[in-house]
Amino acid sequence: MTDSLFDDESGRPEGPPSEGTPLADRIRPRTLDEIVGQEHILAPGMPLREAIERDVLHSIILWGPPGTGKTTLARIVADMTRAHFVQFSAVLSGIREIKDVMAAAEVRRRTTGRRTIVFIDEIHRFNKAQQDAFLPRVEAGDIVLIGATTENPSFEVNAALLSRSRVFVLRPLSAGAIESILRRALTDSERGLGSSGVAVTDPALAAIARFANGDARAALNLLEFSATLAAGDTDAGGRRLDLPQLEEVIRRRALLYDKGGEEHFNLISALHKSMRNSDPDAAVYWLARMLEAGEDPLYIARRMIRFASEDVGNADPQALAIAVAARDAAHFIGMPEGTTALAQAAIYLATAPKSNAVYTAYTAAAADAHERAAEPVPLHLRNAPTKLMKELEYGKGYQYAHDEGDAVAGMDCLPESVAGRKYYRPTDRGFEKELKRRLEGWEQIKSRKRGKTP
After folding, report:
1. Do 114 and 153 sit in the same domain of this protein?
2. What is the rounded CA–CA span in Å between residue 430 and residue 6?
3. CA atoms within 13 A on the CB side of 143
4. Count of domains for the chain
């Protein structure tokens, strides 16, 4: 924790960037007008911009992926505000430091009337007790909280703190916006690479922007690293970075994926819903996104096994066997060889006829099991291995299906409270069409036999 985000209390950086400062930090916007992207919250006249410019900001949570400007925005607030500015790192700060700063903020407000703006980077890393320590001072108006997080605040920020803050969502930057940032970095002689003599071809610049995946910091870091490796161009008298050189630097794309965070659930949801909508191309794409980012292949296999029962069911009974086989194959041969087994299963499931009749049947039966009295098993369905059980009429009235010419008996197998309930309702898709035909035929046989029963 630092008492001030920058070199003085107002947040204004002193002098030119020090030697060795990363390009992404050197080129960071210093005014709202320099920020590229996020117009939906920072365009002139928007509430957040108005609050910052008028220095009447209330507690906010900035939620967005890495490199979209959360810390930059906090630095600009620090530069523009008349309030005292304090930064916490959720990784480094403890509860004692929080309490000390909160006590100082209370005294400062009481004695001078001056607010304290507290910026918490990665607020999702603070535990609930640490977050609770801010509440009294937020409620009293002694501090204005700015929290930055890459995680969904609904899950990671205390409900009480969240209810006292407004959430602003920062979006991943477009490739065009990132290209604009890169060009500024290349031409800025004071803070960027303008005096380095490096020229970057348009295709290479566009490739960096695409590779960054909406993250300006990642784009600038790659530009800076690639520029140091750029080959000399004797004709132009400088250094030149082209697309083939850049591809050598990149080698392999590092995908944005947090196996423990929201993106994990977003991607598995995308896979599931793509297969459900019979889109094999989307299914194999989302599968590749997860596997190439290092997701546990057996987790994906488990989800596909569930899908085979929930969304395909008996429309194609082979789907479950395929999903289980893919799980076994991926486990047996490991990665990366197992990727094709999982891809085969994902494509099969996406192209299989769909039915959720098994899922809805179980859901309805489970609801009855919970909500209705647990009736005893009807006597005719019970075994009677002992004399006493036979005397108590266990098994009385049981009709052995194989003794019937059509292997169907007319007896009821449900208890009285749910007699006649239909849980499984097969569709007309795939193999379930045949099952529906069978069930309708059996029901006619049973009804006929029940009519003969005294």
Report:
1. yes
2. 66
3. 29
4. 4
Average pLDDT estimate for 11-15: 45
325 with 280, same domain: the answer is yes
Show which of 189, 222, 250 is a domain's final residue.
Answer: 250
Residues in the chain: 454
pLDDT for 314: 95
- For residues 373 and 6, which has the higher predicted lDDT (pLDDT)? 373
Query: Domain residues for 420?
Result: 376-452
pTM for this model (two decimals):
0.62
Choose one of 169, 186, 211: the last residue of a domain.
Answer: 169
pLDDT digits (tens, 9 = 90+) for 92-131: 667 778 888 888 888 988 898 888 899 998 888 888 888 8
Give CA–CA dist 304/298, Å, rounded: 10
**Locus of tokens 């919250």:** 41
Angle, to 10 degrees, between the axis of helix 243-250 and the axis of helix 216-228? Answer: 110
- Whether residue 362 lies inside any domain: the answer is no
Sign of the alpha-carbon dihedral angle for 21, 22, 23, 26: negative
Shortest CA distance to 63 belongs to which of 1, 147, 141, 5? 147
Distance, CA of 226 to CA of 204 (rounded, Å): 10
Give the tokens for residue 262: 């929201």
Instruction: State residue 251's pLDDT score.
Output: 61
Q: Give the closest residue to 119 by CA, choosing from 148, 142, 157, 92.
A: 148
CATH number at residue 28: 3.40.50.300
What is the maximum span of the chain, computed from C-alpha positions, in angstroms? 106
Q: Is a pLDDT exceeding 90 seen at residue 32? A: yes
Least confident of 29-33, 91-95, 385-389, 450-454: 450-454
